[in-house]
Amino acid sequence: KKRIAVFISGSGSNMLKLADACEAPAFPAEIVAVMSDKPEATGLTKAAARGIKTLSFPRKAYESKQDHEAAMLDALAEIQPDFICLAGFMRLLSGDFIRAWEGRIINIHPSLLPLFPGLNTHQRAIIAGMKVAGCTVHFVTEGMDEGPVIGQAVVPVLPGDDADALATRILTVEHQLYPAALERLAAGNVWMENGKAVFPGDATSKTTG
Ligand code: GAR
């Protein structure tokens, strides 16, 4: 099984869905650590309750972003994951960090990227008058919420939706998409090459990503 470190900052509902999927004997991945920049993240308690190793790295315990990331990189060197899944990790990783883990970090973002990267994504989709919204799992590259797409899921935007209603609807499809994307990655059925996502056996792979 591929070894997975999950990075969270909050409630960790996506992390729990990944953990659920990993419990299936045939699933090609296992979660070996949940790491957070927020010691108070409720997801850490939920991970620990399932017997998953948890580590927290509060930003203010370190003098610089570089020191903070160095501590996380040291922990990763010890844990030796194959891949890192960002799951509601609300901190932008530096180019140095990302290059060290190039092609081995994936993220979930609650919009149909490249639309609406960054914060307040649901509100911005509503204000733009979108009739559909959704979520994206992608390889992490240096830009925020950029990088080749592994998978997406779509939901309708309904009349009267506020940001919370839309976020809730999108979260239900995040919970299906992220385990499916991780399965594909861990099974070797998608990888990043020359800045593109490669889907072996998929005739369209050369033009997407
Ligand atoms: C999820 O909606 C995730 O897509 C989003 O934060 C939420 C975390 O929820 N991530 C981002 O906005 C990253 N740019 P969770 O902690 O319950 O999984």
From TrEMBL:
<dbReference type="GO" id="GO:0005829">
    <property type="term" value="C:cytosol"/>
</dbReference>
<keyword id="KW-0658">Purine biosynthesis</keyword>
<comment type="pathway">
    <text>Purine metabolism; IMP biosynthesis via de novo pathway; N(2)-formyl-N(1)-(5-phospho-D-ribosyl)glycinamide from N(1)-(5-phospho-D-ribosyl)glycinamide (10-formyl THF route): step 1/1.</text>
</comment>
<feature type="binding site">
    <location>
        <begin position="90"/>
        <end position="93"/>
    </location>
    <ligand>
        <name>(6R)-10-formyltetrahydrofolate</name>
    </ligand>
</feature>
<feature type="domain" description="Formyl transferase N-terminal">
    <location>
        <begin position="2"/>
        <end position="182"/>
    </location>
</feature>
<feature type="site" description="Raises pKa of active site His">
    <location>
        <position position="145"/>
    </location>
</feature>
<dbReference type="InterPro" id="IPR036477">
    <property type="entry name" value="Formyl_transf_N_sf"/>
</dbReference>
<dbReference type="Pfam" id="PF00551">
    <property type="entry name" value="Formyl_trans_N"/>
</dbReference>
<protein>
    <recommendedName>
        <fullName>Phosphoribosylglycinamide formyltransferase</fullName>
        <ecNumber>2.1.2.2</ecNumber>
    </recommendedName>
</protein>
<dbReference type="InterPro" id="IPR004607">
    <property type="entry name" value="GART"/>
</dbReference>
<dbReference type="InterPro" id="IPR002376">
    <property type="entry name" value="Formyl_transf_N"/>
</dbReference>
<comment type="similarity">
    <text>Belongs to the GART family.</text>
</comment>
<comment type="function">
    <text>Catalyzes the transfer of a formyl group from 10-formyltetrahydrofolate to 5-phospho-ribosyl-glycinamide (GAR), producing 5-phospho-ribosyl-N-formylglycinamide (FGAR) and tetrahydrofolate.</text>
</comment>
<feature type="binding site">
    <location>
        <position position="65"/>
    </location>
    <ligand>
        <name>(6R)-10-formyltetrahydrofolate</name>
    </ligand>
</feature>
<feature type="active site" description="Proton donor">
    <location>
        <position position="109"/>
    </location>
</feature>
<dbReference type="InterPro" id="IPR001555">
    <property type="entry name" value="GART_AS"/>
</dbReference>
<dbReference type="GO" id="GO:0006189">
    <property type="term" value="P:'de novo' IMP biosynthetic process"/>
</dbReference>
<dbReference type="GO" id="GO:0004644">
    <property type="term" value="F:phosphoribosylglycinamide formyltransferase activity"/>
</dbReference>
<keyword id="KW-0808">Transferase</keyword>
<feature type="binding site">
    <location>
        <begin position="12"/>
        <end position="14"/>
    </location>
    <ligand>
        <name>N(1)-(5-phospho-beta-D-ribosyl)glycinamide</name>
    </ligand>
</feature>
<feature type="binding site">
    <location>
        <position position="107"/>
    </location>
    <ligand>
        <name>(6R)-10-formyltetrahydrofolate</name>
    </ligand>
</feature>
